[in-house]
Amino acid sequence: MKEVLAYPANYWQTMYEIWLFVAVVIYLVVFIPAAIFLWKYRYRKGVNEKAQHVHESKALEVLWTIIPTIVVIYLATHSFAFYRVQRNAPEKAMEIKVTAFMWGWEFEYPNGKKVFSFFNSVVNPETNTYLKPEEVNDMFKAYLPAETPVKVLLTSRDVIHSFYVHPAKVMEDAVPGRITHMWFQINKPGEYWVFCREYCGTQHSKMAAVLKVVPKEEFEKWLNQGMQTSEVLNKGNL
Amino acid sequence: MAAVSYRPYFSAGLKEWLFTTDHKKIGIMYGITSLIFFLIAGLSALAIRLELYQPGLQYMSEDAYNQALTVHGVLMQFWWAVAIWGSFGNYLLPLMIGARDVAFPRLNALSYWLFFAASVLALLTFLPGNHIRMMWTGYPPFSLNENAGPVAFYALIIHMLGASSLASAINLVVTNLTMRAPGITLRKMNLFLHAFLAMNVIQILGVPALAGAVTMLLMDKYFHTAFFDPTRGGDPLLYQNLFWFYSHPVVYVMILPAFGLISEMIATFSRREIFGRTSMIFAIWGIAILGFMVWIHHMFTSGVPDWIRILFSYTTVLIGVPTGIKIFNWVFTLYKGSVRFTTPMLYTLSAIFMFLIGGLTGIPLGLPAFDIAVHDSHFVVAHFHYVLGMALTLAVFGGFHYWYPKITGRMYSELWGKIGLVIIMIGSNLFYFLQFIVGLEGMPRRYADYPPIPEWVRLHELQTIGAFILAFGVFIALANLILSTKLGPKAEDNPWQSPSLEWLIPSPPPPHNFDKIPHMPEDWDPYNYEWLEKQHKKA
Q1: Looking at the domain assignment, is residue B10 inside a domain?
Q2: Got the DSSP string for B62-87?
Q3: Residue of chain A nearest B268, judged by CA positions
Q4: Which of A16, A187, A204, B136 is the most buried (most CB within 10 A)?
Q5: Number of domains within chain B
Q6: Which residues on chain A are in Cβ contact (under 8 Å) with B141?
């Protein structure tokens, strides 16, 4: 079996491939006859000066009403089946709480440990340009265990933001006054981006965070290491 | 008729233009205002593309970028994609139905001047202190925040536009339904007018929802009500529901008349009636009605209940069916036709095939399983730029060329028209196709800056190059149209040999269109090209 980088991105990938196939076929079904007609029935002096009369063809019209209806209903039903899995976290998922604010993220783990990531923690302070995920200071990174499903409970402290996990290809809005949810699982240890996908003002385009996915044992060790970030915050050392 | 001498309507003096109630002059004023704002929005798009050329902020601050994006969105949608139909509709409707003017000419002038006032207000937002930076959607609670800019300004602009559209929509629906000359039945009415009628009905039903939403926004911000503010018990999703209840159907306000123009032009240049004309009319109304039942797909990731996402995914993809019917009918209109590759025909064909890409990439956005990865990404941006930025704009430019001899009495240069189109097609496909790919790779929309992921950087560079090629093509196309008003050769009254009523009167039309209200004979039809030939033989 092919190794999957992240769930539920695999479902998205399959949906994407099905759609792409259908779309290319439909494009060709329209384009090829059109190209033939354009060539064959082009105006030429003395040869094709006048159009012939064809008003309509009931059979054709029924055909191109019914077939597309079946195709789109098939696509929507396929999506429905996938979406149930993409939406509903597996039962054994680890639950974390993510609170968005202008402009950054607060990650809260089951044991109460918190990590804060700010818009200016993902940029080089001198040039104000994005760092590579590896260059971001570890204390701003949300650690996650590899090969473990993670359920995210989302909310926002001020305006609407959106939590988009780049490798897992899944997002959900963080709405103030509501708790929304999503889940994902990243299998390969590494550092990955999270972006805000709902416009939220000046630093919207820097409202990113880094997920540091590490093997389970390493994650457990990190989780019980005490509240790194809040200690730093107390020292006013940002 | 040709012997009668009169001053063409467009050589009128300033005073006559300012106080006119003539639908043709009002149509032209709509068109010029719309084009000016198209250019402003286009320039702000170039600024955006320049900023995205490389990661980092090189040319502008985040706030300036967010303002440019808001300006681009609002102007392109309301001033270009919607208001341009004020131009085509006003100009063509009375001519196509054999009327001397619209039903309420003064109300028509009021509509334009309200639109003009909104235009002035829109320009005033460029002044320091007036910058609006909340995107055209203006979602609360962000829009209640100081960072968003003056919401009152935005609300006033939307209300003026709304009043203008409502007055205009009612006026034109009444004109369409009550003032058709004898012999022009609904069955024989031009397809553009069917589309235009549906568009105006959507406006009448939809505008109040948007007006309500921005009014509540205004009250929340300045009078401390709590419709949308969650800290005082409001619900921000209520705004999204009200907003999209209008703002999804508004995309059909934009695209249905474009479909109408495509139908007009493809019939004329294939020299035959549109294939499956009845199903075309049903498809228009099918789209208009279904269009009101799909708005939740803009909110698939907003926290609405899951079951409603699934329900709306079915209604959303079903819109593909009537749209598909239209595309197949256009293709089969070419079948056994006598196809002439004039500039407007090439624009029409380009519009159809670009719309097809836009439509096919719209289907997966209606599938939540696909949408959760690309919602608010550049994939969505590319999708609606294929539909509106390309299909609509190409159809409108095709329309500019097609009715150019009718409006100005002169002919544009075919060669430069075609050169302009080729450059536009190269630029826009390079630009928007790569936008799909960067979107699939995850690039979020409304980002002034992005991380230096190598593929993203390369894709953004090429997109920016594409955008500038596109701008150059638009420049050539418009320069051709503008210069030809002076340099173009005199056009015949009916250069395309179309039996549609607007072509049966002199070009440019006389001030009152028809000296006598025409009685259209039984065998006449706007797409009966043989009828016209018979008339020529008789003469």
Answers
A1: no
A2: HHHHHHHHHHHHHIIIIIIIIHHHHH
A3: A51
A4: A204
A5: 1
A6: 158-160, 176
- pLDDT at site A1: 42
Amino acid at position B167, single letter: A
B444 DSSP assignment: B
Q: Is residue B7 part of a domain?
A: no
Interface mutation vs chain A, best among B60, B296, B338, B361, most A CBs within 10 Å: B338
Length of chain B: 539
Alpha helices (runs of H) in A52-102, residue ranges in sequence order: 58-87
Structural domain includes residue B164: yes
CATH code for the domain in which residue B153 is found:
1.20.210.10
Work out the pLDDT band at B219, boundaries 50, 70, 90: very high
Look at A205 and B336 and tell me if their CB atoms are within 8 Å: no
By the 8 A CB rule, do B249 and B202 touch?
yes
* pLDDT value, residue B8: 66
Domain made up of A94-234: CATH architecture: Sandwich (2.60)
Please state, in angstroms and rounded to a whole number, the distance separating the CA atoms of residues B57 and B67: 15
Rounded mean pLDDT of chain A?
Answer: 91
Q: Give residues 255 to 314 of B whose Cβ lies within 8 Å of A.
A: 270-273, 275-279, 301-303, 306, 309-310, 313-314
In tens, the pLDDT along B342-369 reads: 999 999 999 999 999 999 999 999 999 9
CB contact under 8 A, B364 and A166: no
Residue-level pLDDT at B1: 40
B13 found inside a domain: no
A6-87: CATH topology: Helix Hairpins (1.10.287)
In eight-state DSSP terms, residue B390 is: I
In this complex, do B451 and A132 lie within 8 Å of one another by their Cβ atoms? yes
Q: What is the pLDDT of residue B145?
A: 87
Task: Please answer yes or no on whether B372 and A65 come within 8 Å at the CB atom.
Answer: no
User: Domain locations in chain A?
Assistant: 6-87, 94-234
For residues A138 and A212, is the Cβ–Cβ distance under 8 A?
A: yes
Range of the domain at B41: 23-534
